[in-house]
Amino acid sequence: DAKTTQPPSMDCAEGRAANLPCNHSTISGNEYVYWYRQIHSQGPQYIIHGLKNNETNEMASLIITEDRKSSTLILPHATLRDTAVYYCIVRGTVQGGSEKLVFGKGTKLTVNP
Amino acid sequence: NAGVTQTPKFQVLKTGQSMTLQCAQDMNHEYMSWYRQDPGMGLRLIHYSVGAGITDQGEVPNGYNVSRSTTEDFPLRLLSAAPSQTSVYFCASKIGISGNTIYFGEGSWLTVV
To answer: CA-CA distance, B78 to B111, in Å (whole number)?
Structure first.
């Protein structure tokens, strides 16, 4: 499975865009990039995923570089409720089709008033 | 919608006791799984199921049993609790093996003393 590298922490002002980077230089051609977040004491929450094109949904935008070695999650107008640990994941599978999500340590995003 | 529901949320066990963590989902998802989350270790897959009557082991299955008699329920049994099983447990589900979005429960905090 491809490994990902994220900064351990970031700060963002409320109302501003939060740009969270992720490096995944060993990603293989058929692996997707997923983003999840985990608010304190809650289960992880799916945000967005993509293969090579930029993606946008109601929560965020995902920008993937052309070489697919890195990506950026963008929260366009961060709110205090966006304070969470954000995980960038390259989807891997174990034999038999199980879902082996390697979450790593993620980025602790703090949105400040 | 309830989504993925786990019970209990908190539990303290004595070493050697057995217990069952309950997980139910109301989304008619075929795929369900159990993870444990420990500080610095990310999420590790314990067991998973691709459908009723089918279960398989993940990365860290020792000391745990599962069964899948219905599509909705996927209980996790600790046979003889050990302090090393002190952790936060998350149940998750998705529509099928190829499903992209994984839905997590709120977590069960287990302490074994």
So the answer is: 12
Residues 70-109 of chain B with CB under 8 A from chain A are 90, 92, 94, 97, 100-107
Separation between Cα atoms, residue B64 and residue B74, nearest integer Å: 12
Residue pLDDT, tens place only, B19-46: 999 999 999 999 999 999 998 777 888 9
What is the signed CA dihedral for A113, A75, B35, B40, rounded to 10 degrees?
-60
Residues B78 and B13: their CA atoms lie apart, in Å, by 10
Distance from CA of B95 to the nearest CA of A (A): 12
Distance from the A11 Cα atom to the nearest Cα atom in chain B, whole angstroms: 21
8 Å CB contact of A98 and B107 = no
Largest Cα–Cα separation, chain A:
47
Task: Quote the tokens at residue A112.
Answer: 């400040």
CB B107, CB A42: distance < 8 Å: yes
How many CA atoms within 13 Å lie on the side-chain side of B33? 29
pLDDT at A98: 59
Given a contact cutoff of 8 angstroms between Cβ atoms, the answer to whether B49 and A97 are in contact is: no
Residue A15: left if φ>0, alpha if ψ -120 to 50, beta else—which one? left
